[in-house]
Design a protein that fits this description.
Blueprint: E1 4-8, H1 13-23, H2 31-40, E2 42-47, E3 51-59, E4 63-71, H3 80-91, E5 96-102, H4 106-114, E6 118-123, E7 133-138
Parallel strand pairs: 4-5
Antiparallel strand pairs: 1-2, 2-3, 3-4, 5-7, 6-7
EC number: 2.3.1.-
InterPro entries: Acyl_CoA_acyltransferase (IPR016181), GNAT_dom (IPR000182), YpeA/RimI_acetyltransf (IPR050680)
Keywords: Acyltransferase, Transferase
């Protein structure tokens, strides 16, 4: 099954709000947060043709920071997040990637390690719930 990879824009704001609610219940970004992100940063989606996985990123001349990456609940464990990451790596082949993830999110940590991310540091009690953040980095493709 082929998945389309596309840049998301302000017209996708209602969809992003719904996806945030489904994927990050209780920790979802507000409409203003997403709107501001879309105004100053970039978002991408992956689907066939409906988006089932999305990423909110910040692009600088040297690096990409992944702020959010998620797959809709009914489509998890199908490799979509990995495919989305691979598409992002192809889109930005010469840039370092950074992200932070909750230490307790073992599935995500394992996924990130499987595509070349390495742990840089841990930030204790980083999140509002007191959990630890793992800061990870992936070097550009050589």
């Amino acid at each position: 099954m082929s998945h389309s990879f596309r840049r998301l824009g302000e017209s996708d704001l209602p969809l992003l709000l719904g996806w945030e609610s489904l994927c990050f219940s209780g920790e979802e970004w507000t409409e203003k947060m997403i709107q501001t992100h879309l105004e100053f940063h970039v978002a991408f989606g992956l689907g066939d043709p409906e988006i089932k996985s999305y990423a909110l990123i910040c692009e600088t001349p040297w690096e990409i920071e992944i702020f959010r990456i998620a797959t809709l609940p009914n489509y998890r464990k199908l490799g979509l997040a990995k495919n989305l990451l691979m598409a992002l790596f192809q889109e930005f082949p010469k840039k370092e990637f950074f992200l932070e993830v909750k230490e307790s999110n073992y599935g995500a940590v394992t996924l990130y390690q499987s595509v070349g991310f390495i742990e840089l540091e841990r930030r204790k009690k980083y999140y509002p719930d007191g959990s630890t953040a793992v800061l990870m980095k992936r070097n550009p493709s050589e």
